[in-house]
Amino acid sequence: MAGPRHPVSVSGAAMVQTDRLQTFTFSVCWSDDSDTFARRSWEEFRRLHKTLKETFPVEAGLLRRSDRILPKLPDASLLVHWGRTGRGLARLQLLETYSRALLAAGERVAQSPVLTGFFAPQPMDLEPALPAGSLVILPAPQEPLPGPTGSPAICSLEAQSLRCLQPFSTQDTWGQPFHARAQEALDVLLRHPSGWWLVANEDQQTAWFPAPYLEEVALGQGRDGERSLGSSGSQFCASHAYESSQADELSVPAGARVHVLETSDRGWWLCRFRGRTGLLPAAMLQPDGLGTLLSGPWLHLRVDGGEDREGEAQSSPKSPQATTLPPTVPARPSRSAIQSCCCTITRKALGQDPGCHGPP
Q1: Which of 10, 260, 268, 338 fits 279 for a cystine, CB–CB 3.0-4.6 Å?
Q2: Distance between CA atoms of residues 342 and 9, nearest Å
C-alpha cells in the first residue's frame, strides 16, 4: 500500500509583490501525480529551515559536520545591491535551488511531515484571486545569458503562444475591432493580475484579452498545430480533498486543479483530472485564478495528466441537465490600474502607442 503523498519536484513559478508582502509561488508535483501551487514568503522558508535543523540534527550536521546533508538556506543579504524586483527574482531562483536540494536529501527528509506540510496547499494558495494591486513577475523560461560568476541573471519574459478556447470579440489597442476565432493562437505579451492580458495575433494586432479564454499550445507545435496541452473547459481548484464513493466520481487531493467540462444545477459537475473523467461536488470547486495566471510550458503542469479518453464524455444521472460551462470574463481594469502594476519600461512601451490603453 502506498504511503502518504509527498512532493517529488518543485519549480519556481513567479514572484508576487503586494504593498506589504513579497511571496514566491512554486509549482509542486506530488507523488500521486497531482500538481498544486504553493505561495510562501522568505520568512516562511527561514522558519522551515530552522524547524528542519531541529527535527533532523544529524542531517543538519549539528552533531558531526561530516554528516550534514541538509542544504544551507542562502543569505539574502548578498542581494542588497539589487533593486526590489531583481532581489525578488533572484530569491525565487535561490529558493527553487534550496527546495530541490531538500527533496534530494533522502527520503527521511524529503518525505517528512515537516516538508510535506510546508508545501501542502494552505488557505492562501486556494484563494480564487490574488490580492488587489498584486504585481506578478514571472521568471524567463529560457536559459539565462552568461554573466559574472555568482551574480543572478534576470532575463525578460518572451511571448508565449496560447490558443483561444471560444470565439471572442473586443477592441484592439487602437480602438479597432479585434476578433479571435476558436483555436486561434495568440501571443501573450503582458499578463495582468486582473485577468486581462495583452495579446497579439498573427497580423500583429494587439489587444487586451480575457485570460480564461486562453489555453496552452502543445510544445513543438505552432499556430497550425491541432493538439493543445490544455483541455476544453474552465480550470477550477479543489478547496479540499474529496474521496469518491461511487464509480462515476473522482478522487482529488486538496488544491488539485481540474477542468470542468459540464455543470449542473444538481450540485455535481463533470470534471477531468489526471486523465480521468468523473463527477465532483460543485461546492468544493472554485475558479483557479492563480493557476490560470501562472500556467506556462516551463512549469511541470499536468492538469489532467494524460490523453483524452476515446469518445465524448457522457452525462451522469446525477447531472441530467448538464450544460457546457463558458469561460468567465473577468472585470475590466482601468488604464491606471494596468500601468500601476507595470514596470517603467513597460509603461513607456505602452505609452508610445497613442491609442494604447487598458481594457475600456
Answers
A1: 268
A2: 31
Cβ atoms of residues 189 and 199 within 8 Å: yes
pTM: 0.58
Q: What is the pLDDT of residues 35-62, one digit of tens each?
A: 888 999 999 999 999 999 999 999 999 9
To the nearest 10 degrees (0 to 180), the angle between helices 84-103 and 42-55 is 30
DSSP 278-327: EEEEGGGEEE-HHHHHH--TTS---SS-SPPPSSPPPP-TT-TT-EEPPP
**φ, ψ dihedrals at 338, nearest 5°:** -65, -50
Amino acid letter, residue 287: P
- Find the length of the chain: 360
Q: How many angstroms from the chain centroid is the CA of residue 282?
A: 22
pLDDT tens for 144-174 read 444 444 433 333 344 567 888 888 888 888 8
